[in-house]
């Protein structure tokens, strides 16, 4: 388990006093129970195993937070492939907008592998010039899109639509064919260009604006001049169009620049990349509407040798140009073949090592600069069907949020909210997948203030030569201020139990004698970890209709009651009315 910062002396004293009190109670209790056991030994004759006897004592430092994160800590990403496979035209779906709004406030990064193959074309809107002649209402896909666009143009403010089922079915067929081509491109590292039109940008911004998301738009860094300097012509045209529309957008340039040589046979070193970002900052300042727009980068890949060298060189020259430093991390490749791989503690812990490498570079050149984890996904190349879109993948996702918050990552951008591959939160029928429900509960309950956790009795004494890794992950935050069911001063604890046995947790210290609300998330149905449905406290989670979420009903645990975590489950626990000093301000 990740280690928290050293605690101050008063809290340590409080913890020791509480621990001593609980130990005395445990001894008295065990004395009573042991005599009862002795009397029954003739019939049972079984000595309780270690797993059955373990009681975990948990306390939280409520005096001050160890981190304060961005309010948009959990944010989202859309891959530019939605332009190519046609799903961009359906971002106005009322249900899709509702699902995205459920995870607001958040950033929406429009970027990915195909960022560096985007070309902006400020062409006229064909929908306005395709008249309603005798063939206008033909029941084919293209005319349906045009008709939908014209109907949306007539709406004022947020533009949403209810697309006919036949139209969605045709789109799913088209997308299935296109995604085979996209996957082939990604596996071969040979990509085709994608045109983002003015109309496409309108649809993308409408989706973000309706859902309460702030759009971050990725720009093509591989649009190069003969001398390998960055060509800004397409970007300038895009900036002028966005400014004319008064689109509030933040920007980034390129995606995983350390991998350009393998992708297109052309390298962009850290010096050149720093010059490109400086040029982009100057360009933004030249467009009045964007002269104060935020700029993020350099979107380096996993911090291995090439990515580390590029990030280090970039920070030396252009660390002050960007508002936050961005990098990417994927946990595994497409060779994973069983859902249990998502529960491997060795895999979960790789993120800590990567974060430490990035933080070391950033703190060397720009101390205090915010660090974002962008484009994060559980698996490479779009994930694996029936694996990375199941309940089991949620352990990796929830642990990532906990680890990233504990180590000061300011924002985590999840790839992808919708469409591409199998790492998305919403499927192509606009139904939420398990990771969406985990994210929704996280957003509702977890605030940006991170608290230190103190645990005792977590595991047996390590045997010589044996590495014991935590299979019980516990994180604590102040409860989200936007949740009006809880007053300021409440604390949210979320627990990930990777064990195959139930774990009992006793709240100690300042957490004692307080009512707790339990939100226990378990797989629904008979598929276990492979389930694509989730239940909350025994009730299956599903949308009531296109605009209504299910009620997230907590189960009340009386003060002093032990928390029992079932095997291989994830739970959120809100300690009510604790009046924690760290959470009142």
UniProtKB/TrEMBL annotation:
Signal peptide stretch: 1-29
GO molecular function: hydrolase activity, acting on glycosyl bonds
GO CC terms of this entry: extracellular matrix; extracellular space; membrane
InterPro entries: GH, Glyco_hydro_79
Keyword entries, A-Z: Signal
Xref: SUPFAM superfamilies: (Trans)glycosidases
Domain of life assignment: Eukaryota
Pfam families, sorted: Glyco_hydro_79n
GO biological process: extracellular matrix organization
Family indicated by similarity: Belongs to the glycosyl hydrolase 79 family.
Name of the protein described by the UniProt record: Inactive heparanase-2
Organism: Xyrichtys novacula (Pearly razorfish)
């Amino acid at each position: 388990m990740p280690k928290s910062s050293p605690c101050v002396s008063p809290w340590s004293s409080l913890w020791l006093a509480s621990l001593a009190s609980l130990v005395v109670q445990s001894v008295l209790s065990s004395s009573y129970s042991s005599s009862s056991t002795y009397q029954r030994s003739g019939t049972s004759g079984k000595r309780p195993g270690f797993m059955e006897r373990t009681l975990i004592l948990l306390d939280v430092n409520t005096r001050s937070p160890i981190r304060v994160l961005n309010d948009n800590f959990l944010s989202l990403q859309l891959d530019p492939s939605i332009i190519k496979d046609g799903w961009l035209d359906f971002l106005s779906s009322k249900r899709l907008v509702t699902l995205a709004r459920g995870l607001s406030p958040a950033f929406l990064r429009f970027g990915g592998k195909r960022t560096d193959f985007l070309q902006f074309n400020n062409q006229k809107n064909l929908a306005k010039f395709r008249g309603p002649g005798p063939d206008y209402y033909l029941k084919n896909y293209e005319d349906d899109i045009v008709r939908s666009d014209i109907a949306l143009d007539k709406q004022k403010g947020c533009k949403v639509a209810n697309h006919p089922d036949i139209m969605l079915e045709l789109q799913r067929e088209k997308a299935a064919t296109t995604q085979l081509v996209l996957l082939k491109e990604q596996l071969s590292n040979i990509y085709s260009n994608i045109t983002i039109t003015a109309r496409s940008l309108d649809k993308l911004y409408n989706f973000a604006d309706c859902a309460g998301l702030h759009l971050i738009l990725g720009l093509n860094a591989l649009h190069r001049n003969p001398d390998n300097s960055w060509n800004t012509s397409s970007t300038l045209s895009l900036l002028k169009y966005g400014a004319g529309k008064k689109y509030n957008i933040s920007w980034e340039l390129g995606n995983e620049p350390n991998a350009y040589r393998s992708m297109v046979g052309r390298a962009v070193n850290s010096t050149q990349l720093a010059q490109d970002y400086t040029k982009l900052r100057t360009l933004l300042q030249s467009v009045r509407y964007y002269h104060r727009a935020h700029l993020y980068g350099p979107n380096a890949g996993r911090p291995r040798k090439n990515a580390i060298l590029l990030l280090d060189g970039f920070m030396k020259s252009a660390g002050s140009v960007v508002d936050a430093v961005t990098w990417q991390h994927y946990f595994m490749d497409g060779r994973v073949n069983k859902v249990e791989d998502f529960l491997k503690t060795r895999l979960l812990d790789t993120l800590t090592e990567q974060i430490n490498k990035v933080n070391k570079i950033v703190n060397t050149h720009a101390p205090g600069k915010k660090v974002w984890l962008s484009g994060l996904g559980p698996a490479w190349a779009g994930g694996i069907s029936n694996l990375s879109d199941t309940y089991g993948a949620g352990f990796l996702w929830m642990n990532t949020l906990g680890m990233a918050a504990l180590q000061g990552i300011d924002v985590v951008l999840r790839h992808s909210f919708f469409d591409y591959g199998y790492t998305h939160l919403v499927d192509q029928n606009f139904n939420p997948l398990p990771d969406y429900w985990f994210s929704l509960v996280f957003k509702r309950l977890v605030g940006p203030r991170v608290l230190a956790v103190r645990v005792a009795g977590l595991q047996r004494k390590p045997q010589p030569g044996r590495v014991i890794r935590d299979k019980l992950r516990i994180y604590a935050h102040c409860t989200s201020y936007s949740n009006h069911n809880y007053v300021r001063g409440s604390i949210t604890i979320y627990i990930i139990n990777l064990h195959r046995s139930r774990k009992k947790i006793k709240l100690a210290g300042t957490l004692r004698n307080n009512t707790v609300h339990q939100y226990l998330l378990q797989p629904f149905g008979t598929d276990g970890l492979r389930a694509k449905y989730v239940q909350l406290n025994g009730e299956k989670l599903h949308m009531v209709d296109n605009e209504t979420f299910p009620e997230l009903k907590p189960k009340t645990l009386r003060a002093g009651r032990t928390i029992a975590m079932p095997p291989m489950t994830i739970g959120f626990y809100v300690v009510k009315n604790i009046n924690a000093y760290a959470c009142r301000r």
